[in-house]
Write a structure and sequence with these properties.
The structure holds two protein chains of two kinds.
Chain A lengths: L15 E5 L6 H8 L10 E3 L2 E3 L4 H6 L2 E4 L11 H6 L5 E2 L3 E2 L1 H15 L14 H14 L4 E5 L7 H16 L3 E5 L3 H7 L2 E6 L2 E7 L5 H9 L17 E11 L5 E11 L3 E5 L6 H7 L8 E6 L2 E2 L5 H7 L1 E4 L3 H5 L6 H6 L9 E2 L2 E2 L1 H15 L15 H14 L4 E5 L7 H16 L3 E6 L2 H7 L2 E6 L2 E7 L5 H9 L7
Parallel strand pairs in A: 1-8, 1-9, 4-7, 7-8, 13-20, 13-21, 16-19, 19-20
Antiparallel strand pairs in A: 2-3, 5-6, 9-10, 11-12, 11-14, 14-15, 17-18, 21-22
Chain B lengths: L1 H30 L7 H16 L4 H25 L4 H23 L13 E2 L16 E2 H19 L1 H11 L1 H6 L4 H27 L11 H11 L4 H24 L2 H5 L2 H19 L19
Antiparallel strand pairs in B: 1-2
Helix pairs in contact in B: 1-5, 1-8, 1-9, 1-10, 2-3, 2-4, 2-8, 2-9, 3-4, 3-8, 5-6, 5-10, 6-8, 9-10, 9-12, 10-12
Classes of the chains: A alpha/beta, B mainly alpha.
């Protein structure tokens, strides 16, 4: 399949260009070609007017191209300075690593562009925002004149994102060309001068940011005007379905990850958990689905204590789970769609008859559910792994919701999905709550928490540090609570 | 008492080099992210080839031939695990089995089932100045490889932690994708470390047949390769740590031998088999206490596939 089809794009010094498009539109492929990771089958690349061929990132770096990958390309066990100079190390007497020169280089770049970074800090101890700055400094250390930022704000709080764009603007003013790859159309229009839109491997539009609205841009991205977001129907909370008080639990390597989480979910509610990655979200989701034991505190599902329950006990008690890592925890890629749909229900009709698998019954049930969820392609015998991310997620949601769980735990439910699939998944989560159940939404995307929740908790350092009703949702303030720079006194 | 300590130290210095070299070889390869279960096979290769070569070559040169042969076997591991992305544990165990049976076969076909004919051992040296110093005089009377085993850990540590190349090796074992995006070849770096590790482990094997004994014996290296791996784990994948652990294991072995010869009465109480098993039990105990692979390089054993970053 052709990932890129006849795409032409120019970039001037000091320019701020955005590249937008749905997942699979070819943005990443295009940037990987630019960075020498992929080689084009046809077409040319020119730098400073002269044609070039990039055989590896080394060639691209030599020509002044830098890239900040969405998933950071950093080594946690090394220091900031070591990460920055890796692959382009200053040496003394030809062999020795010159640590002082490396640290000085980092300090000089930080001073020039206004970063706050300690070159001697171990990278693994830094937060996400600081790691991203290390990535940028890394590119600048190699003399990047064109800097690609791939989904840079996906994991940042609003304040951190502002800081990033301020830095990027300073770089552009100093003559560096900046390419922003993003699907957040508002930030694209706020930061960039020019926007290139990609769809199915082609460049379908190129617009000036000034005078373009997010709605117009969204229409170009999707190929049709987007449906207006459904109006928010506030819940009238009923009986409590899930209650945690003073819950503590250990994380990886036995270090305490949850240090006092108290929360309550009532019938009819979507409750969001906002927080920066690594503040206990993963452990919280595992605790409320029975995958991780509590070290202190109590947990009740529908008024029944389940403090020491197995995952099976939680499922029986009415807890459904849409895990964060779909591929590892929610599906078996080589199994067919209908087999995946039957997992966890494989002992009951219509999926089984006595001890035997009921193939015909399973197939019929799967076809029905695929129809209702609009899973494409509509073939229940296809292996799960050939479906797109959005369709895989629909299958997982169909399976979990089919059990009509009183409490649905959804972790990052729209991660990596395109605009259409995001809308479908979000609508289903709201609909599930509206049927008198409760949804616990754990998401690193603050925007998603704000859009879907009736109530939200902020998780910081393994504690629930704030509880906010929808009327008090404030992006900025919550961002600061998530970073621990503001303390809730409410 | 002093004499006993000196004897123990001298005996430790006889046993340590083979373990030290093999542990360093495994450390180098694993720091780059490649599992090194094949160290046992590499040692056997080094020991056999060096002994056979020494039948017709000067022994120091024969040691080099043994190292080269082990490096070639390590090259096969690099090819299988890096180029063909085979499971590194399976590849390592397969090479161990090949080394075990191939050299048993060659031994029986060419020589005798028990071992090769004797060869000229590496010569032993000493510093006359040390003769009068208590304890330290135990350093005398060993081959040059013992001295090398005392120096090499520091050299490898310097290479890993103080040079630009070492920085890349440490990075490639933790986050190969990060190294690749900086335009450095992951496979090239890893292959160099695996082959370099092969040279070192081969040297460890050659020590056995040219210094510890004067021939290749059927059972060599009798699990020393796995003990070297244990030393690497115990030493938390650092050259100096591995060195310390290897010397500790060697001292355990020296103690066992010393016990059996200086206090034969012990044998009446403790069966010989139990004493023989002591170093292995020690290894097992250490691994049980240390537990897990907490300090292992993060990308250890994971093949790097540039298409699926």
């Amino acid at each position: 399949m052709r990932a890129l089809d006849d795409v032409s794009l120019g970039l001037a010094a000091g320019e701020r260009l955005a590249l937008v498009g749905e997942n699979g539109a070819g943005k990443s492929t295009l940037m990987n070609v630019l960075y020498g990771l992929y080689r084009p089958d046809a077409g040319t690349l020119s730098v400073d007017g002269a044609p070039v061929v990039f055989r590896s990132p080394r060639d691209a770096i030599a020509r002044g191209i830098g890239m900040v990958h969405q998933h950071f390309m950093l080594v946690p066990t090394l220091t900031v300075a070591e990460n920055v100079v890796l692959g382009a190390e200053p040496t003394a007497r030809g062999l020795l690593l010159d640590v002082q020169a490396a640290e000085a280089a980092v300090e000089a770049l930080c001073a020039r562009f206004g970063f706050q970074l300690d070159p001697r800090a171990r990278l693994g101890e830094l937060g996400v925002g600081a790691r991203q700055k290390v990535e940028i400094v890394k590119a600048l250390h190699r003399g990047a004149r064109a800097l690609v930022l791939d989904e840079p704000t996906a994991v940042l709080t609003p304040d951190e994102a502002d800081e990033l764009f301020a830095v990027a603007r300073r770089l552009a003013d100093a003559g560096t060309a900046v390419v922003l790859v993003s699907h957040k159309l508002k930030e694209v229009l706020a930061f960039c001068e020019r926007v290139a839109v990609m769809r199915r491997g082609r460049k379908v539009a190129e617009l000036k940011a000034a005078g373009t609205t997010p709605e117009v841009l969204a229409a170009h991205v999707m190929g049709e005007p987007p449906p207006p977001p459904p109006p928010f129907q506030p819940a009238t909370p009923g009986a409590p379905l899930l209650q945690l008080s003073g819950v503590c639990a250990d994380g990886p390597q036995g270090r305490p990850a949850l240090k006092g989480v108290s929360l309550r979910l009532c019938a009819g509610e979507v409750v969001g958990i906002a927080g920066v990655d690594g503040n206990g979200q993963r452990e919280l989701a595992e605790v409320v689905t029975g995958l991780r034991p509590l070290t202190a505190g109590t947990l009740e599902v529908r008024g029944k204590p389940l403090t020491a329950g197995t995952p099976a006990a939680f499922r029986t008690a009415g807890v459904g789970h849409v895990p964060e890592d779909r591929h590892r925890h929610a599906m078996v890629g080589s199994f067919s769609v209908e087999e995946n749909l039957s997992l966890g229900r494989h002992r009951v009709p219509p999926f089984a008859r006595g001890p035997w698998i009921d193939s015909a019954g399973r197939h019929a049930a799967a076809v029905l559910e695929m129809e209702r969820w609009d899973v494409r392609p509509r073939d229940a015998s296809l292996p799960m792994q050939v479906l797109s991310g959005g369709n895989q997620q629909k299958v997982v949601m169909a399976r979990e919701l089919s059990l009509d769980p009183a409490v649905l735990v959804a972790v990052q439910p729209t991660r990596g999905l395109d605009i259409g699939a995001v809308a479908a998944v979000r609508a289903q989560l709201r609909a599930h709550a509206a049927r008198g159940h409760a949804v616990l939404l754990v998401s690193l995307d603050l925007e998603e928490v704000l859009a879907l929740s009736d109530r939200a908790y902020v998780l910081y350092g393994g504690r629930t540090v704030a509880e906010l009703p929808r009327a008090q949702f404030d992006e900025r303030r919550m961002g600061r609570l998530m970073l621990g720079t503001e303390v809730d006194r409410g | 008492m002093l004499e006993l300590l000196e004897a123990l130290l001298a005996s430790t210095l006889d046993y340590a080099p083979a373990l030290v070299f093999a542990a360093l070889g495994a450390t180098l390869s694993e720091r780059a992210g490649v599992v090194s279960l094949h160290v046992e096979g590499l040692m056997r290769t080094g020991a056999f080839v060096a002994a056979v070569a020494a039948l017709s070559l000067p022994t120091p040169l024969a040691v080099c031939v043994g190292m080269a042969a082990a490096a070639a076997v390590a090259g096969v591991h690099a090819l299988l695990s890096l180029r063909l992305r085979a499971d590194q544990v399976i590849s390592g165990m397969a090479l161990n089995l090949v080394a075990l049976s191939l050299f048993s076969f060659l031994l029986e076909a060419r020589f005798s089932p028990t071992g090769t004919p004797p060869i000229a051992q590496l010569s032993r040296h000493g510093l006359p100045a040390l003769e009068g110093v208590p304890l330290l005089r135990a350093l005398n009377g060993h081959t040059a490889l013992t001295w090398l085993a005392l120096a090499l850990p520091f050299a490898l540590s310097f290479l890993l932690y103080r040079t630009a190349w070492g920085l890349r090796v440490r990075a490639v074992g933790e986050a190969p994708a990060a190294v690749a995006t900086l335009g450095v070849s992951v496979a090239g770096l890893r292959a160099a470390c695996v082959v370099g590790g092969g040279l070192l482990a081969g040297l460890g094997g050659a020590v056995l047949s040219t210094s510890t004994l004067d021939r290749f014996e059927q059972h060599m290296p009798a699990g020393l390769g796995f003990m070297a791996l244990a030393a690497m784990v115990f030493g938390r994948w650092s050259p100096l740590g591995a060195f310390g652990a290897a010397v500790f294991f060697a001292a355990g072995n020296a103690l066992r031998v010393g016990l059996a010869s200086s206090a034969p009465g012990v044998l009446a109480v403790v069966p010989q088999g139990v004493l023989m098993a002591l170093p292995y039990a020690l290894t097992l105990g250490v691994l049980a206490v240390q537990g897990g692979r907490g300090q292992a390089p993060a990308a250890l054993g994971q093949p790097y596939d540039p298409e699926h970053r």
